[in-house]
Structures are given as C-alpha cells and as structure tokens.
Design a protein that fits this description.
Blueprint (H helix, E strand, L loop, with lengths): L11 E5 L4 H12 L3 E6 L2 H13 L3 E6 L5 H15 L2 E6 L21 H30 L2 E6 L12 H21 L4 E8 L8 H4 L8 H9 L12 H8 L11 E4 L9
Parallel strand pairs: 1-2, 1-4, 2-3, 4-5, 5-6, 6-7
Length: 270
Amino acid sequence: MSNPLFDLSGETAVVIGGTGVLGSSMAQALATAGARVAIIGRSQERGEAAVQHIERSGGQAVFQQADALNPESLAHARDAISAKWGAVKILVNAAGGNRPDATLPPGSDFCKLPLSAWREVFDLNLVGGVLLPCQVFGGAMVTAGQGSIINIASLSGMTPLSRVVAYSAAKAAVINLTQFLAREWAQKGVRVNAISPGFFPAEQNRALLMNPDGAYTERGKQIMAHTPMARFGEASELAGAVVWLASSRASSFVTGQNIVVDGGFSSVTI
C-alpha cells in the first residue's frame, strides 16, 4: 500500500528543464508518485524521450515546448497544460547550467571574465531558471491559493566553489529569491523551497569530474576527498526530496528551506 503522505495522484506538476539528466529524473519521481507531469523545455526530441520513459513506467506525462526566458512562451505553456489537466499545483524549476567562458581555470584573471558570459549565466539560472517561471506559474498558484514551488539551486550557491564563479553567484541568488518568495507567499497557500544538489555527473560537468575512461580527474579526486560518502550522487537520489517537498501532506509546514543533497560534502570543513 502506498503511503498517502507521498501520494500525488490527481495533481498536475510542471518540470521546467525536465529534459536534462536531473530534471528528467525528478519528473519521473513525481510521475511515480501519481502526478501528471508536464515537461517543459526547448528540445522536442529530448522532451518526447523523457515523456516516453515516464509512460513506459506507467506514468502520465506530456511535453510542452517553451523558452524559459520568454514570459509569453511560458504563459502559453501554462495555459495549454491547465486546459489539458487542470491548474498546476507543483512547479519544479530545474533549468540551469554554466558556460565555459564564465568559468575561471586555475591562474586565470577574474577581472577579465566577460560581462556577456556573466549575464548569460544569470539569465539561465536566475531569470529563466526561477524568476520568470515563478511569475508565470507561481502567480497562477497564488490566485488559486495553493501550490508548491521547488527551485533547483546548488551546493555552489552555498559555498563559492573555485572556477564556477558566475554559476555559484547565480545559484546563491536562487536560494535568496526562494526565501523571499517563501516569505511573500506563505499566507497565500504557496510554499517555495529549494533543493541544492552536490556533485551529480551530468552533461555540463562530467568532463570536469571524470576522464573518458571513467577515472576521476584531479578535480574529481579533490571532491571525493571532501565527500564523506566518497562518491558522486545519482540522479535518482533526488527523488525523495522532490516528492516530499511537492506533497502538501508530507511537507505542509515547510517553506523557505534549502534542502541539501550532497553526500555530506557541506558538512566537512576545510
């Protein structure tokens, strides 16, 4: 018998950035818990693949193409999803990423970091990653008087890791905005929380952490030495946190929190 605390049957969830490794895994988790999941992204091919994976597991899913940096595109997606399945009650903002030209290799000059690269990282992670989706979908939740928003931040938003300076700063802003919205919407029926994953190998960081033969890079070795569990995370290990925060029964008094899933990395002092 399923636990009713974590039963999302009949609820409509949206995962923006659900075509990525972590986003698609969280979409799968929500579908397994019974939610009808709309995956929003730009890639039709990857979006349909994510939908098929959910449907093969017995879940309900649909792909809606949209640009997270375009409020009109997001509003169109919201209206299409609501017309199909009813009001969206769960929003996972999983879009984000970094740019090579916004990364500082060892010995490089911070003062020469291109402003254009900095702005694009902030647009990707903060503006399209949280701000606009919260305005478009969150605004509808406030009107309806219910909803759970889960923003995907990062361990680097808590600790400014070397090299990824723009990404770290943008994710720190995600955590701050999460807390702001939690306070603003706490009495309007909308909970807003964040999940900060530690090191989970995905498209954007795999080459930084692992060599083609699977061995750890020097940076990967440094991370392992600082991680009590001595391994990287698996995308499926975010499932419990996202379903818990999505459930109005399981986490009804939880808002403004940043849930860290990092194998203990942040518990170790240098």
